[in-house]
């Protein structure tokens, strides 16, 4: 095979890696939007805190003498998921539930305030400089000729993709098969009616926030290990990218968020590979503008019909 | 016989508009009570206040001896009061059977972890829900459509599915807001039979808002007439038909 095909495949692999983390974060946006019709702009900060908690947990656990990298990652992931879920639950309880009956714009402003608050809280508590983490998982597969054209897939990339697939399958089963998932779907279609059938929609909304936060924590931990560095500002860009992914796939649609994340990741990676890395954000957000202009309901979303 | 539902001096104000003004009514067990009145009389607002969709600005709603006004809708539903709306409000993107399963959510245990690990208890409960759903689908003649998306059913079928969805919650009071709207005469007759059957064989009381006077006069035990938000008359179908005020409100004065 010629070198250009290997180069292309390498870019696609890198894109799918980043894209799967976008997809994990995008699910939090899309589920919340699906149920309460609000963009949770503090979601990116939950992702950022997930990374911090994971780094802290990794440091703590390795001080306790655990040195198996997979065990370390597994335990730190659990800590990160639990703490981030608690944050997700609390953010909804404190900043959004009291505003449930006000106009959407007011909840949106509360979300932006929450985002600023959390970012600055982490900046004060953890410092504003980059914190680095030695890479726990090194090496990878090499396909092709090591001295000529080849693709390199690192073990970390494989871990990211496998974890994402596990999360997506788990979430899909939860949404389609479980009683709570059924209630989530009902709420996203008609929350008033769901209430009048005896379902406490506040619980359903809380579950949605917790799931979104847990998935963001998974993304935070994985991406943190992949890049090896975290600072209090990563939530902003990651949040915007994931939001773009959610809109691209069709906001409110869970499969759409998954697809949108992957497409965005690959687009970015191909831009970086064939044009220039500086322009990858330009391309990503141009994509957002184009979708909003020409395909506002996204790839898998339904055309917006005003509810009566 | 005690009253299942007792509404006293119900008032609902939207800013300067007094939509409901001092409406009182009561529903006894196994009784079919209709609320009628010209368009815009405030019938649906009365329903919305009773079912917890709105919080009434004044008056009492007492259900089975317990005050309901101001309670959130999901708690009122759990007390055994469920309703439909004028427009069909099914979960259109879910299947027919799922619509009935989700309505029984409050009957199921609320342990999330059990749901994740699919314990035998969870499966057993799920089967109970499924059986009850299937029973009611059969009852309203929709069993063969169980796995179809609810939004793809014919209009009359969607109406029947809504009633089935109410019934799986095992209510004591069923509130139907214009259930015959948009139905053809045949379907209206089926609906008539279904409502009577629910009352006679399942012991539910029914509150009905309806414009189809044939249906109302045929099945109601008691009728309440509302005009411009205020109570106008109340009595048996025969009394209402003979009431000059009611005739005036419907036909206008000359």
TrEMBL record, chain A:
The keyword Cell membrane applies. It is found in: Cell inner membrane. It is a multi-pass membrane protein. It comes from the Bacteria. InterPro entries: ABC_transp_permease, BCAA_transport_permease. The chain crosses the membrane at residues 20-39, 46-64, 70-89, 105-122, 152-175, 204-227, 282-301. Keywords: Amino-acid transport, Cell inner membrane, Cell membrane, Membrane, Transmembrane, Transmembrane helix, Transport. GO terms for cellular component: plasma membrane. CDD domains: TM_PBP1_LivH_like (cd06582). One of its GO terms (molecular function) is L-isoleucine transmembrane transporter activity. Its main location: membrane. The keyword Membrane applies. One of its GO terms (biological process) is D-alanine transmembrane transport. Belongs to the binding-protein-dependent transport system permease family. LivHM subfamily. This is Branched-chain amino acid ABC transporter permease LivH. The lineage of its organism: Bacteria, Pseudomonadati, Pseudomonadota, Gammaproteobacteria, Oceanospirillales.
TrEMBL record, chain B:
Keywords: Amino-acid transport, ATP-binding, Nucleotide-binding, Transport. SUPFAM superfamilies: P-loop containing nucleoside triphosphate hydrolases. Gene3D superfamilies: P-loop containing nucleotide triphosphate hydrolases (3.40.50.300). Residues 5-253 form the ABC transporter domain. InterPro entries: AAA+_ATPase, ABC_AA/LPS_Transport, ABC_transporter-like_ATP-bd, ABC_transporter-like_CS, BCA_ABC_TP_C, P-loop_NTPase. The keyword Cell membrane does not apply. The keyword Transmembrane does not apply. GO terms for cellular component: plasma membrane. This is High-affinity branched-chain amino acid ABC transporter ATP-binding protein LivG. GO terms for molecular function: ATP binding; ATP hydrolysis activity; L-isoleucine transmembrane transporter activity; L-phenylalanine transmembrane transporter activity; L-valine transmembrane transporter activity. It holds the Pfam family BCA_ABC_TP_C. One of its GO terms (biological process) is L-isoleucine import across plasma membrane. Belongs to the ABC transporter superfamily. PANTHER family: CONSERVED COMPONENT OF ABC TRANSPORTER FOR NATURAL AMINO ACIDS-RELATED, HIGH-AFFINITY BRANCHED-CHAIN AMINO ACID TRANSPORT ATP-BINDING PROTEIN LIVG.
